[in-house]
Design goal:
371 residues; alpha/beta; five-stranded parallel sheet; 13 helices; 14% strand
Length: 371
Amino acid sequence: MTRLIFMNEMHQVPKLMRIAKEDDVIVSLKREISDILESRRLKFKCLEDYPQPSEDDAIRWMKDWPIRSGKAFIEHFSYDRLSLWWLMENWLYYSSVYFDSLRDAMLSLQPIETILKHERPDEIVFVDDGKINSEVLKLFTEYKRKIVPMELFRFLYNAKRSTKVFFISKFIDFGFGIRKLMWKLLKPEKETEGEIIFISTDEWGLAKNEAGKYIKYDPFIDPIIPELNYNIKTVNIPVGRLLGLKQMVNNSRNTGYRILESYYNRGAGKRCKNAVKSIINKWSEMKREKGFLSSFEYRHKNIWPLVERQFSAYFSSRLRGHIRDAELLKIMIEEERPSIVVYPGETSEFGKTLFHLCNMRGIPTVGIQHG
C-alpha cells in the first residue's frame, strides 16, 4: 500500500512527522520544507522531481472563461457600456491581497495532479489548514484520504483574510472622504480651464532616483507641461498613497490643479449606490445558476470552491471604487470639456475606465507607457 504525505507549509511538518511511517512517500511542496527534511536525512520528493507544468494552460482558461460562464459575463456585468470584466480580470487572476488568486488555485492544482498521476497512491495524507494546497487536495475525492485537522489555525487564517477585506474596503472609503473634505478647505477661489487634462498620481513620492534620493516630481508629467503652449489642468488621484495630502497642500494655490474627488456630488453618490446594488444582485443570482458554477471546471476539477472568495471579494470591496471612479470621471469630462486627456499608464483599471469614457465622448487620450 502506497501512502503519500503532502507537506505544504512549515507549520504542518511536526504534525505530519509524528504520523509518518518508514515506507510512506513524503512530498515537499516548498523549498524550506525540503531543507528541513534534508537536514534530518529523511527520504522525500519535491516538486522538481516531477514534470513542471506550464502557466499557458491557466492563462488560456482565464481568457476563455467568460464565454463558458452560462451567460455572457462580459456583457452581463457592465456599467455605462464599460465591461467590469475588463477591470476585474487581471486582479482576479493575479492578486492575493485578500484571498488566493485564480492563478494561485490553478498553479497549485497542476503540480498536485501531476504528482498523484505519477505516484498513484492508495491513500493521501495532508493537513487541513485552509491554505490553498490543502483546499486543492480536497478536490481529489477519488483517493482514500487521511485529513489531519488544524481547526484553530484554519479558523484564524480565514478570519484574518475576511477581516482584511472589510478593513481595507473601509479604509479606502475613509481616504476618499478625507481627501474630499481637505479639498473643500484648501481649494483655490478661482480655477483655470484646461484644454489638456493631465491625470497625476502620488506614487513617485515613494520612488528614488539614481542618486538614492526621493523623487519630488512626477517624471511622467512635470517635464512635459512647460513645453506645451496650452492651458493645462492637472487632476490628481491617490495612486501609491491613500491620502496624498502633502501634494494636495503644496498645490492648493495652483489654479490649474484639482483632485478627482472634488467632482463628487450627491447625484454621483446616488447613482453609484444604485449601480453597485443592482450589480451585486445580479451577481447573487448568477452564483445560483448551475451553468455558471459548472463553468469553473479546470483539468477535470471544479475549482469554484477555491476561487469563490476571490470573486466575492471583488464585488464586496473593489466594485464600488470602480463605479465611483467612472462617475467622477464622467463629471470631470462634462465640466472640463477637455480637448485631450493624458494619463501616466495604459493598462491599469483606472486607465481603462478613463480611456473608455473619453473614447465614448470622442475625446482623444494619451497613455504614457508605464514601466
